[in-house]
């Protein structure tokens, strides 16, 4: 048995002394054994928290994936090993705060916003697709968008939505008859379709064409804000959050499409925690409301779609408000 496999075996057995000795002798902590698992995955799977800690301290990659697309955090989560899970979650958050690796990798859907904006999009009854058959928005999201609309419209008043897509959230917002409803949309074909389908003629609707970064001077103070753009990096969402205090009234409600890392349960938890932390630093509390989505997502939903951007059973809907107001 080679040294890497020995390390996997020791991690699996929770033999902290042997793990330490093997690491000191130069064993590769990122080694994949015949099962396609790393020492960290074995330790997490069996709940050996002290070994998990040792391996992470030695540089074991917390975000390595097994052949079935599971990370060490997924193994700990599935087996209910809370201590190991907490150590891995903390390691993931710290790493993402510094490097942002999964966010950049996982959200590189359209390569960059500029590419998507120059792309041709196609509309059908149940999806909006880009030129590479990747879904921009799909009809299965309708109940989620209705829940987002309910959250941001709960205080009435003036509502802002960044990103129209198929108009699911905006249609839901209209049902609450807000005093004003501002929509920012950057894609020319989506914008043309909005005009063609009468959105510009609605009394309380104001459409602003352009990237949100470019139209900030035209925006005001709002009672509710929803953010859902396609083809942007996580950094763009973070950048938008920096402007929240200038756009959201002190008692206002903010929400966003919480879809990053939608193919991996543990990475998604890391991302949810990360955003909550970063919003907290800006003075906002984040409540994550679990919504089951498994029944909306049969295989037929993804027919003709290249990128299954959501594969989890539960969607966590973020409701953010000023910490002072939420106390």
Automatic annotation (TrEMBL):
Signal peptide: none annotated. GO terms for biological process: methylation. GO terms for cellular component: cytoplasm; nucleus. Gene3D superfamilies: Ankyrin repeat-containing domain, Vaccinia Virus protein VP39. The keyword S-adenosyl-L-methionine applies. GO terms for molecular function: protein-arginine N-methyltransferase activity. The keyword Transferase applies. Residues 109-327 form the RMT2 domain. It is found in: Cytoplasm; Nucleus. It holds the Pfam family Ank_2. Monomer. S-adenosyl-L-methionine-dependent protein-arginine N-methyltransferase that methylates the delta-nitrogen atom of arginine residues to form N5-methylarginine (type IV) in target proteins. Monomethylates ribosomal protein L12. This is Protein arginine N-methyltransferase 2. The lineage of its organism: Eukaryota, Viridiplantae, Streptophyta, Embryophyta, Tracheophyta.
């Amino acid at each position: 048995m080679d040294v890497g496999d020995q390390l996997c075996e020791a991690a699996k057995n929770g033999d902290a002394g042997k793990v330490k000795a093997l690491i000191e002798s130069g064993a590769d902590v990122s080694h994949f054994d015949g099962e396609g698992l790393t020492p960290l995955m074995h330790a997490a799977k069996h709940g050996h928290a002290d070994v998990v800690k040792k391996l992470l301290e030695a540089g074991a990659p917390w975000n390595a994936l097994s052949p079935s697309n599971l990370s060490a955090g997924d193994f700990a989560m599935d087996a209910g090993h809370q201590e190991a899970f907490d150590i891995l979650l903390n390691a993931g958050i710290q790493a993402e705060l510094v490097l942002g690796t999964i966010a950049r990798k996982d959200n590189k859907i359209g390569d960059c916003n500029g590419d998507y904006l120059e792309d041709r999009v196609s509309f059908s009854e149940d999806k909006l697709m880009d030129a590479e058959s990747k879904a921009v928005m799909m009809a299965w999201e309708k109940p989620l968008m209705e829940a987002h609309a309910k959250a941001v419209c709960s205080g009435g008043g003036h509502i802002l939505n960044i990103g129209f897509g198929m108009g699911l959230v905006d249609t839901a917002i209209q049902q609450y008859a807000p005093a004003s409803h501002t929509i920012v949309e950057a894609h020319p074909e989506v914008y043309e379709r909005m005009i063609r389908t009468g959105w510009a003629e609605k009394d309380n609707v104001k459409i602003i064409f352009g990237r949100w970064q470019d139209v900030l001077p035209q925006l005001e103070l709002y009672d509710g804000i929803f953010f859902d753009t396609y083809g942007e990096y996580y950094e763009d969402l973070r950048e938008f959050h920096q402007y929240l205090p200038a756009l959201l009234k002190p008692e206002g409600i903010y929400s966003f499409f919480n879809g990053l890392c939608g193919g991996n349960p543990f990475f998604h938890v890391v991302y949810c925690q990360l955003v909550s932390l970063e919003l907290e630093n800006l003075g906002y509390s984040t409540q994550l409301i679990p919504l089951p989505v498994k029944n909306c997502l049969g295989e037929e939903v993804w027919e003709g779609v290249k990128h299954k951007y959501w594969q989890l059973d539960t969607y966590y809907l973020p409701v953010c408000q000023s910490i002072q107001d939420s106390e």
